[in-house]
Specification:
heterotetramer; A: alpha/beta; five-stranded parallel β-sheet; 11 helices; B: Rossmann fold; Rossmann fold; seven-stranded mixed β-sheet; binds thiamine diphosphate; binds magnesium ion
Chain lengths: ~350, ~325, ~325, ~350
């Protein structure tokens, strides 16, 4: 079994003030990440209870996803996510209730009205684009959106798309990168590199140690950041999006991270990851690191943190209860929305 | 009214649609300076500029995927796949993405793209420049599949496809590009998707066909008319979803059905049409539903002698009609 | 004889074929340490090593294309596509390359690869883990398409596919992996490709089906038998090329045909079967050829209530049988 | 219209003796390249006469193709070519008669028995693998062959595959490079960069000035050579193949060249290339350059060269005549070789 050692332990790369972030923003992000993790925990519980048939985790990826979300002009820039991005869509404004409605396949599921498996996030209002499960097929849609901005002459918009490192071996991903590179389109390609494609370790799914290395072949810059460091991700995402909007072209942003749970509730990660490896990464949990930062910077004290956690649990409880009570889709809805009028 | 051939009609459809609606743009390999390998986009670059006439890298998934993305922001992309034989790398984007976007998002998004591709044999194109690939696209809800056979329809159907709120695949037969001329109005007009055209009314046999075979079938119908066999020739025009009303109405009238397509027999769209007739017009049938199609080989071979043997022609169609009439 | 479920039978086929023939190897996503997401290859890595049990990057065209190349040097690759829903990126390699290699080289090369993919609904897999994609592969000569319904057949057909000199696609229904058990001999044996199996002889109605629906149809046949309706249930097993002799022979005997498949109605393989019957057994027919299939939507939806409504079941099949019997 | 200026004029990079090439080998290659060009010329004539329905040129690419062929262990290494590679298959041992049989779709056409359009070269005996017309789909077959060598433990074999720069934008090409890179397989990827994909200039078909730049993203070396210099190509191809056979992994070898004719007989290149650009490249014709080298090195004199040209024309005349007389495929053959026994 392949060893994927964590990067050397360290605190966060930046002070938030230096990045122009307010104390309140940091605390809101911290709370949001705790919400995301709590929702994730409860999804696994719902799965064990037989209520949620499918769960796919974002645990461990929260700093990457919140850091990127901060840099997005919400509702203006397009976001083209993948199944791993639950924390991202929460950061962009979806609610825990939305998430549970989706996971339980309810009529009001904003992603699909109960049609898609969990993890297929969507909101036209938030410009979060509906995806399939086909790995690597969606970055092309971000490229097409960016082409649309060229035609409509909306020079202040960008598209940001997310995928795992495994997806970067798909042909469709290559074509997306190629077109974005040729035309220097305003797309930020975010690779959430958690070092595994389900069970396949990075060495057998991509031919290079840093996915960012691939950028050179597409005529765009590649950046590597510590994906478990909220501020480092934000700084890089902000720079890449600003450059894209300013006509400076696309960026491949690689966020090194780790998923703290199995791939999905159908997976048993003990077959392919050593417990010690998982534990080492747990010690670098992005939420813990942000908490340490907040405490150390005296943005909050331990009691305040405890209050947040209590409030979050209560909030999530309400969301689950509401989602469980919500109606199932009407049977006739099966035949709706095949074609427009 | 101007007389145009089919490729001119296609070009005129795109030019008029682009002039009328700034959201329409075309993309594909060699569509710019070269104007497309069949000249479908000739002159459009000079007129509309490189943002709306986009020379693409050789990346069919990329062409369709980019069209999909642009459509989500409200644009109306018309993608050209250089030959239907090269549509395969884009199948995932067409079937799993474009066709499903509306349904999977419960109507939140929709995907108004058009994908045009030249298809068909008889131009020495051999195994990879002659394929009929329509059957790969006629089992996926959310899509529409269109095959024009006249210049008038080519323009009207293409404009209808561009205005349609959902993805439409348009297969254009290469032999018809320069092989057929007809009246084509200036300016935009539409021919409705989903409606077959009765090209020749007849009482004894319903002949269902499309593309180049619509012309061959009309020729055959003329020949057998002199022998007293009265064939109704129906040009399906839209292969998915099929115009069931016209198909079944015709068979209920004539009692006999012959389906003619250039695609190979097994797995071609003829099977679906035959099954529909069997299910819904069985009692009207006076004879087995027949299919006439190309042999079950991969595509036409290059050699002239093999190509001639492979292709359907009016004579073969007339023979099939006579056999069915005699049943 | 050991009783295995279907996934165990598939695994046993690969293990025995690999033990017997050093040219056989498997490749696919997660086939190594994880043993495949459905455990089809569990234990093979430890037994045969990483050169013959190859964990692949997420690159379906790559998986099939690499298999093609290896087959040209005489190897016998067995590629796994993790779900049939993800076979689309490999369609160009399957249809334009593997299926055509022998023909295009005039017999100089051939391409003995197997591509396995789990398909089918009813496991909460929703739009992208439930598809029936077989119809995309049943119009291309050079290919064979196989769907086993029993553990015995799953092993025998897979070994036959591995030994076959041409490319074979094997679709395995996910619900059957653990949903059915049966006798499976140790060691290698084959079940011939291209031959349907009469699962239940009957006199009144010929029911053609495959995969999970073969089981549901047998259940339905049992139910209606008590009502005096005698159904012949034929498990097609090979969908391309079809076993025309068995299909037509049965209809000539019973005079009535019902085709049952989980794939959506329009464009599914049912159309071809119906057309064959119409063409070659028309005079034997006492009733319209009927098809029972899933609704024309993209695939099953996730919600339990929608899934239940979408799926066929023995009751729905029994109803269709009763209606046809009453015709 | 985009300018693709030729590289600065210069003589060949190496002396042939320094590369271990004999005088006779050089003269044989020179003759072979003249044969290839002559066959190409005559194909266009056959096309104008309406006898050959489809012609696709290798004119201008001869040094790239002969240089690579020299490095191949003919009949042992596999060659996976594309439609541009007529000179290559001649260098590997196919004859002008084979080429004309193919172009005329005759029964004895060794490529396909009259089934494929011209340009789909094939010979199992020479280990030249039959291809489709689908750009970029075939490098995967070279990768699969290389995997086969791993299983059969034939450590002295390599696969060499050829494609245009346009093909490097296809998803299938990316997947081939990815797999070869991950497993460091013995494959040499030869890009015949003629700066156009039919009419699309390099700047709009690939996102980087040198295709070889892409190699880094696949964990393999990329090399750029003057593709109109027979010896430079040979030296690079030889090194890459030797490295591959020695277990050193794959290489992306970019040969910069130019096609001296339109893409095919269906193309009119005046729509997208300036006459001056074509003329500038004609001045760098790889055959002329090799002739100058041979004269300068006194391997041959002008009279000797003239003799070669006369002999070649005679040889090609015979080949055409034979091919024209050869029988067409039997009609029944249409249904042969769909399946094996
Ligand atoms: C085209 C396609 N092939 C295979 C799969 C099955 N699959 C789902 S997730 C996954 C691994 C993806 O790995 P990566 O891209 O690294 O993302 P991660 O899950 O690690 O975040 C695979 C192989 C799929 N969904 N789509
Ligand atoms: C998949 C696919 N798409 C499109 C085509 C049409 N086509 C044939 S050759 C060609 C250009 C190829 O350019 P390049 O790879 O640079 O090779 P070159 O012809 O310049 O040698 C195109 C687009 C094709 N054959 N296959
Ligand atoms: Mg990953
Ligand atoms: Mg080129």
């Amino acid at each position: 079994m392949q060893d994927a050692s964590p990067p050397p332990g360290h605190d966060l790369q930046y002070e938030h003030a230096a990045l122009g972030l307010s104390d309140a923003q940091v605390l809101a992000a911290l709370r949001g990440m705790i919400v995301a993790r709590t929702v994730d925990d409860r999804l696994w519980l719902l799965s064990r209870q037989g209520k949620a048939h499918f769960v796919i985790t974002s645990a461990g990826h929260e700093a990457t996803q919140f850091g990127c979300a901060w840099a997005v002009q919400i509702g203006r820039d397009y976001v083209v996510p993948y199944y791993r991005d639950m924390a991202l869509v929460l950061a962009l404004g979806q609610t825990p209730r939305d998430i549970f409605l989706h996971a339980l396949g309810k009529a009001e599921d904003p992603a699909s009205g109960g049609r898609q498996m969990f993890g297929h996030f969507n909101s036209r209002a938030l410009r979060i684009v509906s995806g399939s499960s086909s790995v690597g097929s969606h970055p092309l849609h971000a490229v097409g959106l960016a082409w649309a901005f060229r035609i409509t002459k909306e020079t202040d918009l960008a598209a940001m798309t997310f995928f795992g490192e495994g997806a970067t071996s798909e042909g469709a991903w290559h074509e997306a990168m190629t077109i974005a590179g040729i035309h220097q389109l305003p797309v930020v390609f975010v690779c959430e590199n958690n070092q595994y494609a389900i069970s396949v370790p990075q060495a057998r799914e991509v031919p290079v140690p840093d996915v960012a290395t691939k950028a050179a072949g597409y005529g765009m810059p590649g950046m590597v950041v510590d994906g478990n460091d909220l501020f480092a991700v934000y700084a890089a995402a902000q720079a890449a999006l600003a450059r894209a909007r300013a006509g400076g072209g696309p960026t491949l942003l690689e966020c090194k991270t780790y998923r703290l749970r199995p791939h999905s509730n159908a997976d048993d990660d003990r077959k392919y990851r050593r417990v010690e490896e998982v534990d080492a990464w747990r010690a670098r949990d992005p939420i813990t690191r942000l908490e340490r930062y907040a405490l150390h910077s005296e943005l909050i004290d331990p009691a305040g943190l405890a209050d947040i956690r209590t409030a979050v649990v209560a909030e999530v409880d309400v969301a689950i209860a509401e989602a469980e009570r919500a109606p199932n889709p009407a049977i006739e809805s099966l035949l709706h929305h095949l074609y427009g009028e | 009214m101007p007389q145009l051939n089919l490729i001119e009609a296609v070009r005129s459809a795109m030019a008029d649609a682009m002039a009328e609606d700034a959201r329409v743009f075309v993309l594909g390999e060699d569509v710019g300076l070269k104007g497309g390998v069949f000249l479908a986009t000739d002159g459009l670059l000079a007129r509309f500029g490189p943002d709306r006439v986009v020379d693409m890298p050789i990346a069919e998934a990329g062409i369709v995927g980019m069209a999909i993305g642009a459509s989500l922001h409200g644009l109306r992309p018309v993608a050209e796949i250089q030959f239907a034989d090269y549509i395969h790398p884009a199948i995932d984007q067409i079937l799993n993405e474009a066709a499903r976007l509306r349904y999977r998002s419960n109507g939140d998004w929709h995907c108004p793209i058009v994908v045009r591709a030249p298809f068909g044999a008889g131009v020495h194109g051999a195994l990879y420049h002659s394929q009929s690939t329509e059957a790969l696209f006629t089992s996926t809800p959310g899509l529409k599949v269109v095959v024009p056979s006249t210049p008038y329809d080519a323009k009207g159907l293409l404009i209808a496809a561009i205005r349609d709120p959902d993805p439409v695949i348009v297969f254009e037969h290469k032999q018809l590009y320069r092989g057929v001329r007809g009246d084509v109005p200036e300016g935009t007009y539409t021919v409705p998707l989903g409606q077959a055209a009765v090209r020749r009314a007849g009482a004894q046999i319903s002949l269902f066909t499309y593309g180049l075979m619509a012309h061959y079938s009309l020729e055959a119908a003329k020949v057998v008319a002199d022998e007293g066999i009265d064939v109704e020739v129906i040009d399906l025009r839209t292969l998915y979803p099929l115009d069931q009303a016209t198909i079944l109405g015709s068979v209920r009238k004539t009692g006999k059905a012959l389906i003619v397509h250039e695609d190979k027999l097994t797995g071609g769209v003829g099977g679906e049409i035959s099954a529909l007739i069997a299910e819904h017009a069985f009692e009207a049938l006076d004879a087995p539903v027949r299919r006439l199609a190309s042999p079950d080989v991969h595509a036409v071979a290059f050699s002239d002698v093999l190509e001639a043997h492979f292709m359907l022609n009016p004579q073969k169609i007339a023979t099939a009609v006579r056999e069915l009439a005699a049943y």
